[in-house]
Protein backbone atom coordinates (compact mmCIF):
# COMPACT_ATOMS: atom_id res chain seq x y z
CA UNK A 1 0.00 0.00 0.00
CA UNK A 2 1.07 3.60 -0.47
CA UNK A 3 0.59 6.58 1.84
CA UNK A 4 0.14 10.04 0.38
CA UNK A 5 1.23 13.28 2.01
CA UNK A 6 0.26 16.87 1.12
CA UNK A 7 3.87 18.02 1.32
CA UNK A 8 6.67 16.74 -0.92
CA UNK A 9 9.56 15.50 1.20
CA UNK A 10 12.98 14.68 -0.15
CA UNK A 11 13.59 11.00 -0.74
CA UNK A 12 17.35 11.45 -1.25
CA UNK A 13 17.92 11.90 2.50
CA UNK A 14 15.40 9.98 4.66
CA UNK A 15 16.81 11.75 7.70
CA UNK A 16 15.10 14.91 6.47
CA UNK A 17 11.74 13.22 6.99
CA UNK A 18 12.48 11.86 10.46
CA UNK A 19 15.26 13.98 12.01
CA UNK A 20 14.12 13.43 15.63
CA UNK A 21 12.93 10.51 17.76
CA UNK A 22 9.99 12.50 19.14
CA UNK A 23 7.25 13.53 16.71
CA UNK A 24 4.10 15.65 16.83
CA UNK A 25 2.49 13.58 14.02
CA UNK A 26 1.23 16.63 12.16
CA UNK A 27 1.84 15.23 8.66
CA UNK A 28 0.28 12.12 7.13
CA UNK A 29 2.95 9.39 6.65
CA UNK A 30 4.16 8.65 3.12
CA UNK A 31 5.88 5.79 1.32
CA UNK A 32 5.13 2.10 0.90
CA UNK A 33 4.50 -0.61 3.47
CA UNK A 34 3.16 -4.17 3.34
CA UNK A 35 -0.15 -5.03 4.97
CA UNK A 36 1.63 -7.55 7.20
CA UNK A 37 4.04 -4.94 8.54
CA UNK A 38 1.21 -2.43 8.91
CA UNK A 39 -0.75 -4.80 11.14
CA UNK A 40 2.36 -5.83 13.07
CA UNK A 41 3.44 -2.29 13.98
CA UNK A 42 -0.15 -1.29 14.82
CA UNK A 43 -0.47 -4.22 17.22
CA UNK A 44 2.88 -3.28 18.76
CA UNK A 45 1.75 0.28 19.39
CA UNK A 46 -1.47 -0.97 20.95
CA UNK A 47 0.59 -3.09 23.36
CA UNK A 48 2.74 -0.05 24.17
CA UNK A 49 -0.28 2.14 24.93
CA UNK A 50 -1.81 -0.59 27.10
CA UNK A 51 1.45 -0.74 29.08
CA UNK A 52 1.39 3.05 29.43
CA UNK A 53 -2.10 2.85 30.95
CA UNK A 54 -1.15 0.01 33.28
CA UNK A 55 1.97 1.75 34.57
CA UNK A 56 0.10 5.03 35.01
CA UNK A 57 -2.57 3.33 37.13
CA UNK A 58 -0.36 0.98 39.09
CA UNK A 59 2.47 3.39 39.88
CA UNK A 60 0.65 6.61 40.86
CA UNK A 61 3.43 8.01 43.08
CA UNK A 62 6.26 7.63 40.58
CA UNK A 63 7.87 10.57 38.80
CA UNK A 64 7.84 10.98 35.02
CA UNK A 65 11.34 9.57 34.63
CA UNK A 66 10.58 6.61 36.90
CA UNK A 67 7.48 5.73 34.86
CA UNK A 68 9.47 6.03 31.65
CA UNK A 69 12.11 3.65 33.00
CA UNK A 70 9.40 1.21 34.14
CA UNK A 71 7.87 1.32 30.64
CA UNK A 72 11.22 0.63 28.95
CA UNK A 73 11.82 -2.33 31.27
CA UNK A 74 8.39 -3.78 30.44
CA UNK A 75 8.95 -3.30 26.71
CA UNK A 76 12.22 -5.22 26.89
CA UNK A 77 10.54 -8.02 28.86
CA UNK A 78 7.85 -8.33 26.18
CA UNK A 79 10.30 -8.31 23.27
CA UNK A 80 9.46 -4.77 22.16
CA UNK A 81 12.95 -3.33 22.55
CA UNK A 82 12.68 -1.49 19.22
CA UNK A 83 10.03 0.85 20.59
CA UNK A 84 11.91 1.04 23.89
CA UNK A 85 14.88 2.56 22.04
CA UNK A 86 12.66 5.50 21.03
CA UNK A 87 11.55 6.14 24.59
CA UNK A 88 14.94 6.14 26.30
CA UNK A 89 16.75 8.09 23.55
CA UNK A 90 17.95 11.62 24.28
CA UNK A 91 16.82 13.05 20.95
CA UNK A 92 18.51 13.10 17.55
CA UNK A 93 22.21 12.33 18.04
CA UNK A 94 21.91 9.22 15.89
CA UNK A 95 20.38 9.10 12.42
CA UNK A 96 21.25 5.65 11.09
CA UNK A 97 19.07 3.68 8.69
CA UNK A 98 17.75 1.72 11.68
CA UNK A 99 16.84 4.96 13.50
CA UNK A 100 14.92 6.21 10.46
CA UNK A 101 13.13 2.87 10.12
CA UNK A 102 12.02 2.87 13.77
CA UNK A 103 10.85 6.50 13.62
CA UNK A 104 8.88 5.80 10.44
CA UNK A 105 7.18 2.78 12.02
CA UNK A 106 6.35 4.96 15.02
CA UNK A 107 4.78 7.55 12.71
CA UNK A 108 2.69 5.09 10.71
CA UNK A 109 1.48 3.07 13.73
CA UNK A 110 0.26 6.25 15.43
CA UNK A 111 -1.84 7.16 12.39
CA UNK A 112 -3.24 3.65 12.08
CA UNK A 113 -4.48 3.64 15.68
CA UNK A 114 -5.75 7.20 15.37
CA UNK A 115 -7.88 6.09 12.41
CA UNK A 116 -8.95 2.93 14.26
CA UNK A 117 -10.53 4.85 17.14
CA UNK A 118 -11.87 7.77 15.10
CA UNK A 119 -15.53 6.60 15.17
CA UNK A 120 -15.65 5.34 18.79
CA UNK A 121 -15.80 8.09 21.43
CA UNK A 122 -14.71 6.01 24.45
CA UNK A 123 -11.82 4.41 22.58
CA UNK A 124 -10.85 7.75 21.10
CA UNK A 125 -10.62 9.20 24.63
CA UNK A 126 -8.54 6.20 25.71
CA UNK A 127 -6.16 6.64 22.76
CA UNK A 128 -5.94 10.39 23.43
CA UNK A 129 -4.98 9.89 27.08
CA UNK A 130 -2.38 7.18 26.49
CA UNK A 131 -0.73 8.99 23.56
CA UNK A 132 -0.48 12.20 25.62
CA UNK A 133 1.08 10.27 28.51
CA UNK A 134 3.50 8.48 26.18
CA UNK A 135 4.51 11.80 24.60
CA UNK A 136 5.16 13.31 28.03
CA UNK A 137 7.26 10.34 29.18
CA UNK A 138 9.26 10.33 25.95
CA UNK A 139 9.89 14.07 26.16
CA UNK A 140 11.28 13.63 29.70
CA UNK A 141 14.16 11.57 28.25
CA UNK A 142 15.45 14.42 26.05
CA UNK A 143 18.63 16.21 27.02
CA UNK A 144 19.17 19.95 26.44
CA UNK A 145 20.33 19.40 22.86
CA UNK A 146 17.38 17.09 22.19
CA UNK A 147 14.96 19.75 23.48
CA UNK A 148 16.66 22.46 21.43
CA UNK A 149 16.49 20.38 18.24
CA UNK A 150 12.86 19.45 18.90
CA UNK A 151 11.92 23.13 19.24
CA UNK A 152 13.93 24.05 16.14
CA UNK A 153 12.37 21.30 13.99
CA UNK A 154 8.85 22.23 15.11
CA UNK A 155 9.36 26.03 14.93
CA UNK A 156 9.09 26.82 18.64
CA UNK A 157 11.01 29.94 19.60
CA UNK A 158 11.30 29.41 23.35
CA UNK A 159 14.79 30.55 24.28
CA UNK A 160 16.99 29.43 27.19
CA UNK A 161 18.05 32.18 29.57
CA UNK A 162 21.69 33.27 29.68
CA UNK A 163 24.02 32.60 32.59
CA UNK A 164 24.04 36.31 33.46
CA UNK A 165 20.26 36.43 33.64
CA UNK A 166 20.25 33.32 35.80
CA UNK A 167 22.67 35.02 38.18
CA UNK A 168 20.33 37.99 38.56
CA UNK A 169 17.31 35.86 39.54
CA UNK A 170 19.06 32.84 41.08
CA UNK A 171 17.53 33.39 44.53
CA UNK A 172 14.01 33.52 43.11
CA UNK A 173 14.63 30.45 40.94
CA UNK A 174 15.74 28.56 44.05
CA UNK A 175 12.55 29.49 45.88
CA UNK A 176 10.10 28.89 43.04
CA UNK A 177 11.58 25.70 41.54
CA UNK A 178 11.34 23.35 44.50
CA UNK A 179 11.74 20.24 42.35
CA UNK A 180 15.09 21.47 41.01
CA UNK A 181 17.96 20.32 43.21
CA UNK A 182 20.74 22.07 41.25
CA UNK A 183 19.65 25.41 39.81
CA UNK A 184 23.18 26.30 38.62
CA UNK A 185 23.41 23.29 36.30
CA UNK A 186 19.79 23.34 35.15
CA UNK A 187 18.72 25.00 31.92
CA UNK A 188 15.75 27.40 32.25
CA UNK A 189 13.59 28.51 29.33
CA UNK A 190 11.72 31.79 29.02
CA UNK A 191 8.11 31.11 28.00
CA UNK A 192 4.99 33.36 27.89
CA UNK A 193 2.94 32.55 30.98
CA UNK A 194 -0.27 31.69 29.07
CA UNK A 195 1.41 28.56 27.65
CA UNK A 196 1.89 26.98 31.08
CA UNK A 197 -1.21 27.60 33.18
CA UNK A 198 -0.88 24.17 34.81
CA UNK A 199 2.67 24.76 36.02
CA UNK A 200 1.73 28.17 37.41
CA UNK A 201 -1.29 26.71 39.16
CA UNK A 202 0.94 24.07 40.76
CA UNK A 203 3.45 26.80 41.70
CA UNK A 204 6.35 25.09 39.95
CA UNK A 205 7.77 28.08 38.08
CA UNK A 206 8.86 31.68 38.58
CA UNK A 207 6.74 34.29 36.75
CA UNK A 208 8.07 37.81 36.15
CA UNK A 209 6.51 40.45 33.91
CA UNK A 210 4.35 37.95 32.04
CA UNK A 211 7.14 35.48 31.38
CA UNK A 212 7.68 32.14 33.09
CA UNK A 213 11.09 30.59 33.72
CA UNK A 214 10.64 26.88 33.19
CA UNK A 215 13.32 24.33 34.20
CA UNK A 216 14.24 21.74 31.58
CA UNK A 217 12.60 18.87 33.50
CA UNK A 218 9.22 20.64 33.36
CA UNK A 219 9.33 21.41 29.63
CA UNK A 220 7.32 18.26 28.90
CA UNK A 221 4.26 19.96 30.41
CA UNK A 222 4.69 22.86 27.97
CA UNK A 223 4.62 20.73 24.84
CA UNK A 224 2.11 18.07 25.91
CA UNK A 225 -0.66 20.70 25.82
CA UNK A 226 0.31 21.54 22.26
CA UNK A 227 0.42 17.84 21.39
CA UNK A 228 -3.10 17.35 22.78
CA UNK A 229 -4.41 20.16 20.58
CA UNK A 230 -2.85 18.51 17.52
CA UNK A 231 -4.52 15.19 18.36
CA UNK A 232 -7.93 16.79 18.80
CA UNK A 233 -7.72 18.81 15.60
CA UNK A 234 -6.56 15.82 13.51
CA UNK A 235 -9.20 13.29 14.54
CA UNK A 236 -11.43 14.55 11.72
CA UNK A 237 -8.67 13.78 9.21
CA UNK A 238 -8.43 10.28 10.70
CA UNK A 239 -12.19 9.80 10.32
CA UNK A 240 -11.98 10.72 6.64
CA UNK A 241 -9.01 8.40 6.11
CA UNK A 242 -10.87 5.46 7.60
CA UNK A 243 -14.10 6.30 5.76
CA UNK A 244 -12.21 6.27 2.45
CA UNK A 245 -11.11 2.70 3.16
CA UNK A 246 -14.55 1.53 4.24
CA UNK A 247 -15.00 -0.90 1.33
CA UNK A 248 -11.46 -2.26 1.32
CA UNK A 249 -11.64 -5.56 3.20
CA UNK A 250 -7.89 -5.68 3.72
CA UNK A 251 -8.06 -2.57 5.89
CA UNK A 252 -11.42 -3.16 7.52
CA UNK A 253 -10.05 -6.48 8.82
CA UNK A 254 -7.07 -4.72 10.43
CA UNK A 255 -9.22 -1.91 11.84
CA UNK A 256 -11.74 -4.37 13.29
CA UNK A 257 -9.01 -6.47 14.91
CA UNK A 258 -7.35 -3.44 16.52
CA UNK A 259 -10.62 -1.92 17.71
CA UNK A 260 -11.72 -5.19 19.34
CA UNK A 261 -8.43 -5.36 21.22
CA UNK A 262 -8.61 -1.86 22.69
CA UNK A 263 -9.89 -2.40 26.21
CA UNK A 264 -10.42 1.06 27.64
CA UNK A 265 -9.23 1.30 31.22
CA UNK A 266 -8.76 -2.46 31.22
CA UNK A 267 -7.32 -2.52 34.71
CA UNK A 268 -7.38 -0.21 37.68
CA UNK A 269 -5.94 -2.58 40.27
CA UNK A 270 -3.27 -1.16 42.54
CA UNK A 271 -0.83 -3.83 43.62
CA UNK A 272 2.36 -1.82 44.03
CA UNK A 273 4.09 -2.05 47.39
CA UNK A 274 4.48 1.73 47.54
CA UNK A 275 0.67 2.12 47.73
CA UNK A 276 -0.06 -0.79 50.04
CA UNK A 277 1.22 1.14 53.05
CA UNK A 278 -1.85 3.38 52.71
CA UNK A 279 -4.42 0.59 52.23
CA UNK A 280 -5.36 -1.63 55.16
CA UNK A 281 -8.46 -2.56 57.15
CA UNK A 282 -7.75 -0.11 59.95
CA UNK A 283 -7.46 2.79 57.47
CA UNK A 284 -10.66 2.27 55.49
CA UNK A 285 -12.73 4.66 57.63
CA UNK A 286 -10.10 7.36 57.19
CA UNK A 287 -9.75 6.74 53.45
CA UNK A 288 -13.53 6.86 53.03
CA UNK A 289 -13.49 10.40 54.39
CA UNK A 290 -10.45 11.67 52.52
CA UNK A 291 -10.04 9.77 49.25
CA UNK A 292 -13.23 7.89 48.33
CA UNK A 293 -15.53 9.27 45.63
CA UNK A 294 -18.94 10.09 47.07
CA UNK A 295 -20.56 6.92 45.66
CA UNK A 296 -18.16 4.71 47.64
CA UNK A 297 -18.22 6.93 50.71
CA UNK A 298 -22.01 6.52 50.85
CA UNK A 299 -21.72 2.74 50.59
CA UNK A 300 -19.03 2.56 53.27
CA UNK A 301 -21.00 4.68 55.74
CA UNK A 302 -24.20 2.72 55.04
CA UNK A 303 -22.39 -0.56 55.66
CA UNK A 304 -20.92 0.71 58.92
CA UNK A 305 -24.32 1.95 60.05
CA UNK A 306 -26.60 -0.91 58.92
CA UNK A 307 -24.04 -3.77 58.83
CA UNK A 308 -25.59 -4.79 55.53
CA UNK A 309 -25.87 -3.76 51.87
CA UNK A 310 -28.21 -5.04 49.17
CA UNK A 311 -26.76 -7.16 46.36
CA UNK A 312 -25.95 -4.25 44.03
CA UNK A 313 -24.20 -2.34 46.78
CA UNK A 314 -22.16 -5.36 47.87
CA UNK A 315 -20.84 -5.99 44.36
CA UNK A 316 -20.12 -2.32 43.63
CA UNK A 317 -18.25 -1.76 46.89
CA UNK A 318 -16.49 -5.16 46.99
CA UNK A 319 -15.01 -4.66 43.52
CA UNK A 320 -13.97 -1.11 44.41
CA UNK A 321 -12.07 -2.44 47.44
CA UNK A 322 -10.48 -5.05 45.23
CA UNK A 323 -9.41 -2.31 42.83
CA UNK A 324 -7.87 -0.37 45.73
CA UNK A 325 -5.64 -3.34 46.42
CA UNK A 326 -7.42 -4.85 49.43
CA UNK A 327 -6.47 -8.52 49.61
CA UNK A 328 -9.05 -11.30 49.58
CA UNK A 329 -8.26 -12.27 53.18
CA UNK A 330 -8.69 -8.68 54.37
CA UNK A 331 -11.90 -8.36 52.34
CA UNK A 332 -13.29 -11.51 54.00
CA UNK A 333 -12.42 -10.12 57.43
CA UNK A 334 -13.95 -6.73 56.63
CA UNK A 335 -17.29 -8.08 55.37
CA UNK A 336 -17.53 -10.76 58.05
CA UNK A 337 -16.96 -8.24 60.87
CA UNK A 338 -19.89 -6.18 59.61
CA UNK A 339 -22.34 -8.88 58.51
CA UNK A 340 -21.90 -11.05 61.61
CA UNK A 341 -23.30 -8.21 63.70
CA UNK A 342 -26.78 -8.96 62.31
CA UNK A 343 -26.56 -12.58 61.06
CA UNK A 344 -25.14 -15.94 62.09
CA UNK A 345 -22.26 -17.85 60.54
CA UNK A 346 -24.53 -20.00 58.36
CA UNK A 347 -26.15 -16.97 56.73
CA UNK A 348 -22.75 -15.38 56.10
CA UNK A 349 -21.43 -18.39 54.17
CA UNK A 350 -23.55 -17.45 51.15
CA UNK A 351 -22.08 -13.95 51.17
CA UNK A 352 -18.60 -15.45 51.57
CA UNK A 353 -19.06 -17.30 48.28
CA UNK A 354 -19.89 -14.07 46.39
CA UNK A 355 -16.89 -12.25 47.87
CA UNK A 356 -14.60 -15.04 46.68
CA UNK A 357 -16.47 -15.00 43.35
CA UNK A 358 -15.70 -11.29 42.86
CA UNK A 359 -12.02 -12.04 43.49
CA UNK A 360 -12.05 -14.80 40.86
CA UNK A 361 -11.76 -17.68 43.32
CA UNK A 362 -15.17 -19.27 42.73
CA UNK A 363 -17.49 -20.00 39.80
CA UNK A 364 -16.03 -19.04 36.42
CA UNK A 365 -12.91 -17.65 38.17
CA UNK A 366 -12.89 -14.55 36.00
CA UNK A 367 -10.83 -11.57 37.06
CA UNK A 368 -13.77 -9.22 37.61
CA UNK A 369 -12.89 -5.54 37.36
CA UNK A 370 -14.34 -2.68 39.43
CA UNK A 371 -17.29 -0.91 37.84
CA UNK A 372 -16.71 2.11 35.66
CA UNK A 373 -18.72 5.26 36.30
CA UNK A 374 -20.84 4.64 33.20
CA UNK A 375 -21.94 1.25 34.50
CA UNK A 376 -22.67 2.74 37.93
CA UNK A 377 -24.76 5.47 36.30
CA UNK A 378 -26.79 2.80 34.52
CA UNK A 379 -27.51 0.89 37.74
CA UNK A 380 -31.08 0.11 38.76
CA UNK A 381 -31.49 1.52 42.26
CA UNK A 382 -34.38 0.76 44.61
CA UNK A 383 -35.58 2.65 47.70
CA UNK A 384 -33.48 0.50 50.09
CA UNK A 385 -30.34 0.65 47.94
CA UNK A 386 -27.23 2.76 48.48
CA UNK A 387 -25.36 1.88 45.29
CA UNK A 388 -25.46 3.73 41.98
CA UNK A 389 -24.29 7.31 41.47
CA UNK A 390 -25.46 9.67 44.24
CA UNK A 391 -25.38 12.62 41.85
CA UNK A 392 -27.91 10.84 39.62
CA UNK A 393 -29.86 8.45 41.84
CA UNK A 394 -30.18 10.25 45.17
CA UNK A 395 -33.07 12.52 46.01
CA UNK A 396 -31.84 16.10 46.05
CA UNK A 397 -32.53 16.53 49.76
CA UNK A 398 -30.63 13.34 50.57
CA UNK A 399 -27.69 14.38 48.38
CA UNK A 400 -27.51 17.73 50.13
CA UNK A 401 -27.48 15.94 53.49
CA UNK A 402 -24.54 13.84 52.30
CA UNK A 403 -22.64 16.96 51.20
CA UNK A 404 -23.38 18.62 54.53
CA UNK A 405 -21.96 15.53 56.24
CA UNK A 406 -18.78 16.14 54.21
CA UNK A 407 -18.53 19.59 55.88
CA UNK A 408 -19.18 21.42 52.62
CA UNK A 409 -20.48 24.97 53.09
CA UNK A 410 -23.63 26.35 51.45
CA UNK A 411 -21.92 27.72 48.33
CA UNK A 412 -19.97 24.47 47.79
CA UNK A 413 -23.13 22.41 48.15
CA UNK A 414 -24.98 24.73 45.78
CA UNK A 415 -22.32 24.37 43.07
CA UNK A 416 -22.50 20.57 43.20
CA UNK A 417 -26.29 20.45 43.45
CA UNK A 418 -26.64 22.68 40.38
CA UNK A 419 -24.49 20.34 38.29
CA UNK A 420 -26.39 17.31 39.58
CA UNK A 421 -29.80 18.80 38.79
CA UNK A 422 -28.60 19.66 35.26
CA UNK A 423 -27.60 16.06 34.63
CA UNK A 424 -23.87 16.85 34.65
CA UNK A 425 -22.99 13.93 36.90
CA UNK A 426 -19.33 13.62 35.91
CA UNK A 427 -18.85 17.36 36.42
CA UNK A 428 -20.56 17.16 39.83
CA UNK A 429 -18.19 14.38 40.89
CA UNK A 430 -15.24 16.41 39.64
CA UNK A 431 -16.42 19.45 41.62
CA UNK A 432 -16.71 17.22 44.69
CA UNK A 433 -13.07 16.15 44.16
CA UNK A 434 -11.86 19.74 43.72
CA UNK A 435 -13.53 20.89 46.93
CA UNK A 436 -12.29 17.88 48.93
CA UNK A 437 -8.73 18.37 47.72
CA UNK A 438 -8.66 22.17 47.43
CA UNK A 439 -7.37 22.03 43.87
CA UNK A 440 -8.39 22.30 40.23
CA UNK A 441 -8.77 19.13 38.16
CA UNK A 442 -8.71 19.23 34.36
CA UNK A 443 -9.92 15.71 33.53
CA UNK A 444 -13.30 14.28 34.51
CA UNK A 445 -13.12 10.93 36.26
CA UNK A 446 -14.55 7.91 34.46
CA UNK A 447 -13.82 5.33 37.16
CA UNK A 448 -14.14 5.40 40.99
CA UNK A 449 -10.77 3.71 41.42
CA UNK A 450 -9.07 6.27 39.21
CA UNK A 451 -10.62 8.93 41.45
CA UNK A 452 -9.15 7.11 44.46
CA UNK A 453 -5.72 6.73 42.83
CA UNK A 454 -5.60 10.42 41.90
CA UNK A 455 -6.64 11.38 45.41
CA UNK A 456 -3.87 9.26 46.92
CA UNK A 457 -1.35 10.76 44.51
CA UNK A 458 -2.45 14.25 45.47
CA UNK A 459 -2.38 13.64 49.21
CA UNK A 460 0.91 11.73 49.32
CA UNK A 461 2.66 14.19 46.99
CA UNK A 462 1.65 17.20 49.06
CA UNK A 463 1.77 15.66 52.53
CA UNK A 464 4.74 17.86 53.36
CA UNK A 465 6.21 20.65 51.36
CA UNK A 466 6.88 24.32 51.03
CA UNK A 467 5.19 26.69 48.63
CA UNK A 468 6.78 29.94 47.61
CA UNK A 469 4.61 32.60 46.04
CA UNK A 470 6.45 35.13 43.88
CA UNK A 471 4.29 38.16 43.25
CA UNK A 472 5.54 40.82 40.86
CA UNK A 473 3.71 44.09 41.56
CA UNK A 474 5.27 47.07 39.80
CA UNK A 475 8.40 49.23 39.88
CA UNK A 476 10.45 46.13 40.66
CA UNK A 477 8.69 45.72 44.01
CA UNK A 478 8.94 42.01 44.78
CA UNK A 479 7.20 40.22 47.62
CA UNK A 480 8.45 36.81 48.68
CA UNK A 481 6.18 34.91 51.00
CA UNK A 482 7.28 31.56 52.32
CA UNK A 483 4.55 29.26 53.53
CA UNK A 484 5.07 25.88 55.06
CA UNK A 485 2.14 23.59 54.40
CA UNK A 486 1.39 20.69 56.66
CA UNK A 487 -1.33 18.46 55.34
CA UNK A 488 -2.96 15.99 57.70
CA UNK A 489 -5.38 13.28 56.75
CA UNK A 490 -8.12 13.30 59.38
CA UNK A 491 -11.30 11.28 59.79
CA UNK A 492 -13.54 14.26 59.11
CA UNK A 493 -11.70 16.29 56.52
CA UNK A 494 -8.20 17.18 55.48
CA UNK A 495 -7.03 20.26 57.33
CA UNK A 496 -4.39 22.61 56.09
CA UNK A 497 -2.34 24.46 58.68
CA UNK A 498 -0.35 27.37 57.36
CA UNK A 499 2.65 28.18 59.52
CA UNK A 500 3.81 31.58 58.39
CA UNK A 501 7.58 31.39 58.74
CA UNK A 502 8.83 34.67 57.34
CA UNK A 503 7.92 37.55 55.10
CA UNK A 504 10.49 39.62 53.24
CA UNK A 505 9.55 42.93 51.70
TrEMBL record:
Set out the biological process GO terms recorded for this chain's protein: DNA replication initiation; DNA replication, synthesis of primer
InterPro entries membership: DNA_primase_C, DNA_primase_lsu_euk, DNA_primase_lsu_euk/arc
Q: Which domain of life is it from?
A: Eukaryota
Which cofactors are required for activity?
[4Fe-4S] cluster
Q: Name one Pfam family in it.
A: DNA_primase_lrg
Name the GO cellular-component terms.
alpha DNA polymerase:primase complex
Kindly give the CDD domains that the UniProt entry links to this protein. Answer: PriL_PriS_Eukaryotic
Leader sequence range is none
Keyword match Cytoplasm: no
Per the database record, which ranges form the DNA primase large subunit C-terminal domain?
285-452
Q: Which GO terms describe its molecular function?
A: 4 iron, 4 sulfur cluster binding; DNA binding; metal ion binding
State which residue ranges cross the membrane.
Answer: 467-487
Q: List the keywords (alphabetical).
A: 4Fe-4S, DNA replication, DNA-binding, Iron, Iron-sulfur, Membrane, Metal-binding, Primosome, Transmembrane, Transmembrane helix
The text of the family note is:
Belongs to the eukaryotic-type primase large subunit family.
Can you name this protein? DNA primase large subunit
Originating species: Acromyrmex echinatior (Panamanian leafcutter ant)
